[in-house]
Design brief:
Blueprint: H1 5-21, H2 38-42, E1 56-61, H3 70-75, E2 80-87, E3 91-92, H4 96-105, E4 109-115, H5 123-132, E5 147-149, H6 164-182, E6 187-190, H7 192-199, E7 211-214, E8 232-236, E9 245-249, H8 253-260, E10 288-290, H9 299-308, E11 312-320, E12 327-331, E13 337-339, E14 343-350
Helix pairs in contact: 1-6, 5-6
Length: 353
């Protein structure tokens, strides 16, 4: 991830102490009011787009929306949703079950997100809380990797009282712990301004963690260092098409499902079983020797005819006869059947002395 393991361990250890000093023991006063982009609204950022940009439409919701009518959301064209699950290490969205399960029930590809509070506890501790309370992942084609919502502090200092180095260590701790628990790298929700301000525009997470950029602008604009494109874009907090905040996915439906499946397409179907081997060809017809009639033929012609009949010329015996050079007799007799190559003995006439 771009950090030396020894240095990272030291940073995380220091961050644990810092977290305790900065408010880990104080209760959360308004976790139900915190949602993806709430700090933008608190800063009076005004959305400028009135119509959805290009991309697959989706939404993100939290306890602000209560029970969601997911059938209507799906009928209006939503393809995906992110649902707030947790905040810190003590809060769980009371509407999470209805929202998360309801999105799944109407066929949306959905994921859970965690509202991070780096001054309360370590990144690893918050990743564990998140994974145990709705942020886990399953390879069902409808579950996106969990997302970390990291934005302006709703309880105090913009960067939660952490230095840029300590913030990078906290983020790395969360990301690596979540991946160890779920096998998936989490999506990171943030703004470019917050990322530049609080991490020094750290570029070490873009290679593994998909980006969910928040920019209520005409375009997604400049992205944080390390990312050349975004996976999701939260383009407004106004309820244009769906309840909650409005988002788009930067890709096709197949790309969205591939992200849900771990970045790879579903495994191919196994090949059909091989066809049975063809039956062996019938044996060739047996070649036989049909003994030809050669009586009366000259010896040379008789031999040729015998060979053409798949027989073999056999022993030749000569006898005195007026029919010199002619075949006088043969054995076996003409018309009989013999094995291929059977020998035909011949009786041939010769001059009298």
């Amino acid at each position: 991830m771009g950090l030396n393991r020894v240095v990272l361990a030291a940073l995380v250890a220091g961050l644990t102490t810092a977290g305790a000093a900065l408010g880990a023991g104080s209760p959360l006063s308004h976790p139900g009011l915190d949602y993806a982009g709430s700090s933008l609204a608190n800063r009076d950022v005004t959305p400028v787009r009135a119509a959805r940009p290009a991309g697959l439409p989706g939404l993100d919701v939290s306890s602000w929306q209560g029970n969601v009518d997911w059938a209507t959301v799906a009928a209006n064209g939503a393809r995906f949703a992110y649902v707030k699950a947790t905040e810190g290490t003590s809060y769980v969205n009371p509407y999470f079950t209805q929202q998360y399960g309801g999105a799944y029930g109407v066929g949306l590809v959905r994921g859970a997100y965690h509202f991070g509070l780096p001054d309360r506890s370590t990144g690893a501790a918050q990743a564990q809380w998140f994974a145990a309370h709705g942020g886990s992942w399953s390879a069902d084609g409808q579950t996106l990797p969990g997302a970390l919502d990291i934005e302006y502090n709703p309880y105090g200092a913009t960067c939660y009282g952490l230095s840029q180095t300590a913030m990078v260590a906290w983020l790395t701790s969360f990301v690596t712990q979540y991946q160890a628990l779920t096998t998936r790298w989490p999506v990171i929700y943030t703004t470019t301004n917050w990322w530049q301000t609080c991490t020094g525009n750290y570029a070490g997470l873009g290679a593994t963690a998909p980006l969910w950029i928040a920019c209520w602008c005409q375009t997604a604009g400049q992205l944080p260092a390390g990312w050349s494109n975004y996976a999701f874009w939260q383009w407004t907090n106004q309820q244009v098409d769906f309840p909650g905040d409005q988002d788009v996915f930067n890709g096709s439906q197949d790309d969205l499902v591939a992200l849900a499946n771990g970045g790879q397409p579903p495994p191919p179907q196994p090949p059909p079983p091989p066809l049975p081997p063809p039956p062996p060809p019938p044996p060739p017809p047996a070649v036989i020797c049909r003994v030809p009639r050669v009586i009366g033929m000259r010896l040379a012609n008789a031999r040729t005819r015998i060979r053409r009949a798949q027989c073999s010329p056999g022993r030749v015996r000569h006898v005195r006869s007026k029919r010199v050079g002619r075949v006088l007799g043969q054995n076996p007799r003409a018309g009989s059947r013999r094995a291929r190559g059977a020998r035909i003995s011949l009786l041939v006439g010769r001059k009298r002395r």
